[in-house]
Write a structure and sequence with these properties.
This protein is α+β, with helices and mostly antiparallel strands. It contains three helices and seven strands. Helix 1 packs across helix 2.
């Protein structure tokens, strides 16, 4: 296979994983108790919000057509960074920039696909059994409070 064709095939496979994972998260009927959190308006439309659930801390910095999401056991720090960009007519493209938490790349890709925003994930080390609950919490909060994450322009 040529390089470009290989990338397309890898992105196609990743998109199928994203769709399957979103279906699993959305099919679960039980809701997780997520606190209301807080939001602070910054300059230039930047908004910071934070919430906690199931012993995890979440922090969102919303910008124009993008957001940064922190996930961890403690307040935000910079251990692992992953990003994903939503592409027109293609699966989201993602990459881990720093760190070893592989699950963050797939989560960034799922969020970019759902929100059509560029997504940056900063993460603390989570146990493998905490990752599905973390994703469920994030998508639940995204559905309940989209303004915390998304801009319209």
């Amino acid at each position: 296979m040529l390089g470009g064709e290989q990338v397309v095939e890898e992105n196609r496979g990743a998109a199928e994983e994203v769709n399957q994972s979103q279906a699993v998260i959305q099919d679960e009927n039980s809701e997780v108790q997520v606190d209301e959190g807080s939001t602070v308006e910054g300059k230039g439309g930047v908004r910071h919000g934070a919430f906690t659930a199931m012993g995890l801390h979440f922090s969102v910095i919303k910008m124009v057509q993008s957001f940064i999401l922190w996930v961890g056991h403690e307040e935000a720090s910079m251990n692992t960074i992953s990003t994903a960009l939503s592409l027109p007519s293609r699966p989201p493209s993602s990459s881990r920039i720093l760190g070893t938490q592989e699950w963050t790349t797939l989560l960034a890709q799922k969020l970019a696909g759902k929100t059509k925003h560029q997504v940056f994930i900063f993460a603390d080390e989570l146990e493998p059994d905490e990752v599905p609950m973390c994703e469920k919490i994030i998508f639940q909060k995204l559905n309940q409070s989209p303004a915390l994450f998304l801009t319209t322009s």
